[in-house]
Design goal:
single chain, alpha/beta, TIM Barrel, 41% helix, 17% strand, binds pyridoxal-5'-phosphate
Length: 227
């Protein structure tokens, strides 16, 4: 059984491989190591191996880890669904939020982000597959939400995030990811801070990178299956 360091390095190797295969610049895709449900010892091993960006889904668990490490060289990404009553914790402890899906949450995060902190880096989550079970705004709603977000001083709009549909149909995956890429291009023409497409997980990394992803979120392939 390979250890976390070995699995982390092979995740990085596959990112570099697919960057090359898609004619993307080397290092244009960043790895977010998704450490949800995993103990701080596992994160420590990944940090020792050089990883700096971590993704967490659950507010309380995430805040405990951020506080435990208290390390300015680490970047913490909140990638889970966010309820209004927990927004303050996220605003105060995380560096990025990938899951903005409504104005109310953006407004609260803006009010709750400390004035002494760097602005919170945010992504709008897009429900590109249109599945009822998925969070996120519809593609047609991206521009209006973006317009509201950029008026908030304590937030910086960096781009879009999506969770790919679970299917073996590569054409469907590619079509949806390519639509995400077009949406990002459109957003970029309006806002100079936009540069990020958070798209791709263990199973669909290749298609995500081929369609312009700049951040992939990988959990189990690095830390092992979640119990
Ligand atoms: C859990 C999770 C991941 C990582 O999933 P793995 O299957 O463990 O690689 C990525 N993105 C989001 C939003 C997640 O919730």
């Amino acid at each position: 059984m390979p250890n976390i360091t070995e699995r982390l390095n092979s995740a990085i190797d596959s990112i570099r491989f697919f960057e090359k295969k898609s004619n993307r610049d080397e290092n244009s895709v960043q790895l977010i190591a998704v450490s949800k449900t995993k103990p701080v010892e596992d994160i420590t091993e990944a940090i020792t191996a050089g990883q700096r960006d971590f993704g967490e889904n659950y507010v309380q668990e995430g805040v405990e880890k951020v506080t435990h490490f208290n390390d300015k060289s680490l970047t913490w990404h909140f990638i889970g669904p966010l309820q209004s009553n927990k927004s303050r914790q996220v605003a105060e402890h995380f560096d990025w939020v990938h899951t903005i899906d409504r104005l109310k949450i953006a407004k609260r995060l803006n009010e709750q982000r400390g004035v002494y902190q760097q602005p919170l880096q945010v992504l709008i989550q897009v429900n590109i597959s249109g599945e009822d079970s998925k969070s996120g705004v519809l593609p047609t709603e991206v521009m209006s939400l973006a317009k509201e977000i950029v008026s908030f001083e304590r937030l910086t709009l960096r781009g879009l995030m999506t969770i790919g549909v679970k299917t073996d149909d590569v054409d469907v995956i590619n079509q949806q990811f390519s639509t995400m890429n077009e949406l990002l291009t459109q957003l970029k023409t309006q806002y100079t801070t936009v540069d990020t497409l958070s798209m791709g997980m263990s199973s669909d990394i290749e298609h995500a990178i081929n369609n312009g992803s700049t951040m992939v979120r990988v959990g189990s392939a690095i830390f092992g299956a979640r119990g």
